[in-house]
Write a structure and sequence with these properties.
75 residues; mainly alpha; 4 helices
C-alpha cells in the first residue's frame, strides 16, 4: 500500500535522444531504489527526499501527490 502512495511516474515524450533516454532510466532507477530502501527502513525520510531530488523530482509537487495518493486510498 505504501508503494502506491510513494509511486513516481516518468512521462516520456516522442523523439527523445539516446542520452535523454539513458538519463530517464538513471533517474527512474534512483527513485525506485530510494523508495525500496525507505520502505524497508534502510534510509531516513530526509535521505529519501534527497535521493528523489537527485532524480530530478520536484519535491513540493511530489509531496502533494503523495498526500493526494494517501487520501485516495483512505490513509
Amino acid at each position: 500500500m505504501i508503494e502506491q502512495i510513494l509511486e513516481t511516474q516518468i512521462i516520456i515524450c516522442h523523439s527523445l535522444s539516446e542520452d535523454e533516454i539513458q538519463d530517464l532510466i538513471m533517474r527512474e532507477e534512483i527513485s525506485s531504489l530510494a523508495t525500496q530502501r525507505f520502505i524497508k527502513g534502510e534510509i531516513s525520510f530526509r535521505d529519501f527526499l534527497e535521493f528523489m531530488e537527485i532524480a530530478g523530482i520536484n519535491i513540493d509537487d511530489y509531496l502533494q501527490l503523495a498526500n493526494d495518493n494517501a487520501q485516495s486510498i483512505g490513509f
